[in-house]
């Protein structure tokens, strides 16, 4: 166990503590659940994809973890409040919340992106985090020690790209920075927040349209440029880190109370360059040279 921090007396990743993870049935979320389980924590696993969630929860239970699967659409405020209530009913407390569920969406010109795509991508990627903050932060403040991790992306910290996805991830970074200042201004030291900005990770993200609701309307037919953008993204993801590696970085980040948690350094130059471009008047350089 990590040494106790002077500003937060007890480790939040520790046996008997309770973690809630959204987007828990696959990829980074599943990696987080497995890591929290291996730390002896109770795990509340939330996902919109019921069969994958049941399978993931069964595997966690088989390894001896106390796991509560809760089918949850994070874009639905009432469902996230019900998730919180289910977690408290089962385990009496929540110490770690990972607002992690996210989806892709089209990469084409923003003005051609249909309203249904905007509503879906922003509803899950940003709305899901807002719902998680509103439902869980008051509960975290009641604990002796707690931490919230919001999943953005490396595409949240440099020049906008990838359609509504990049927009949503910049917003998650801004939201979490605001959360940090909110807690700081209230003198809260026992609750930490982090924004996870992964680079490429080997997950099922390339098929996130599997969870696209019918109300979003027919999917956009991609042109060659958007297809190339999506294919490049998927090629990078295949070469990326494993969810277990990302989960280890997240746990280290929580223990060290790191605010920005990046999972690879190969885009550091683009983060630095963005600041320089803003000061110089821009325009932004594309994220891929
Ligand atoms: N894979 C990468 O390279 C990468 C890079 C940067 C950021 N991210 C972010 O990591 C997070 C996790 O994605 P991943 O790569 O593990 O993909 P993934 O598709 O493997 O997992 C995402 C999970 O979220 C769930 N989900 C989708 N919509 C949901 C909803 N409305 N409510 C609840 N759950 C929902 C899916 O069912 C799935 O289990 C996302 O926020 C994504 O934007 C991923």
How would you sum up this structure, described in words?
The protein is of the alpha/beta class and 289 residues long. The chain has one domain: NAD(P)-binding Rossmann-like Domain (Rossmann fold, 3-Layer(aba) Sandwich), CATH 3.40.50.720. Helix content is 45%, strand content 12%. The chain contains nine helices and seven strands, in the order βαβαβαβααβαβααβα. It has helices at 27-38, 50-62, 77-91, 115-125, 127-141, 164-185, 224-238, 243-256, 268-280, and strands at residues 18-22, 42-47, 67-71, 96-99, 146-151, 191-197, 260-262. The chain has a seven-stranded parallel sheet, sandwiched between helices. The longest helix has 22 residues, at 164-185. The termini are far apart. Residues 1-6 have low confidence and may be disordered. Bound molecules: nicotinamide-adenine-dinucleotide. The site of nicotinamide-adenine-dinucleotide has 32 residues, from helix 1.
Task: Describe how the helices and strands are arranged.
Layout: E1 18-22, H1 27-38, E2 42-47, H2 50-62, E3 67-71, H3 77-91, E4 96-99, H4 115-125, H5 127-141, E5 146-151, H6 164-185, E6 191-197, H7 224-238, H8 243-256, E7 260-262, H9 268-280
Parallel strand pairs: 1-2, 1-4, 2-3, 4-5, 5-6, 6-7
The structure holds nicotinamide-adenine-dinucleotide.
Nicotinamide-adenine-dinucleotide (NAD) binds next to helix 1.
């Amino acid at each position: 166990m990590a040494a106790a921090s002077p500003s937060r007396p007890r480790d939040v990743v520790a046996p008997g503590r309770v973690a809630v993870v959204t987007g828990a049935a696959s990829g980074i979320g599943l990696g987080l659940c497995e890591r929290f389980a291996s730390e002896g924590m109770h795990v509340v696993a939330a996902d919109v994809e019921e069969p994958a969630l049941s399978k993931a929860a069964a595997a966690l239970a088989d390894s001896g973890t106390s796991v509560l699967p809760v089918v949850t659409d994070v874009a639905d405020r009432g469902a996230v409040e019900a998730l919180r209530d289910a977690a408290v009913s089962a385990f009496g407390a929540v110490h770690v919340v990972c607002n992690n569920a996210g989806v892709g969406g089209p990469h084409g010109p923003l003005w051609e992106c249909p309203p249904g795509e905007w509503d879906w991508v922003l509803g899950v990627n940003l709305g899901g985090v807002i719902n998680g903050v509103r439902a869980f932060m008051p509960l975290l403040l009641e604990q002796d020690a707690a931490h919230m991790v919001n999943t953005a992306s490396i595409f949240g910290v440099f020049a906008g790209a990838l359609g509504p996805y990049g927009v949503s991830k910049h917003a998650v970074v801004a939201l979490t920075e605001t959360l940090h200042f909110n807690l700081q201004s209230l003198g809260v030291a026992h609750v930490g927040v982090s924004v996870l900005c992964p680079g490429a990770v080997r997950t099922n993200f390339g098929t996130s349209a599997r969870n696209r609701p019918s109300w979003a309307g027919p999917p956009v037919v991609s042109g060659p440029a958007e297809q190339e953008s999506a294919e490049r993204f998927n090629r990078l993801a295949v070469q990326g880190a494993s969810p277990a590696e990302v989960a280890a970085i997240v746990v280290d980040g929580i223990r060290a109370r790191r605010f920005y948690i990046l999972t690879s350094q190969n885009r550091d130059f683009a983060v630095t360059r963005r600041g320089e471009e803003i000061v110089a008047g821009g325009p932004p350089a594309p994220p891929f040279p």
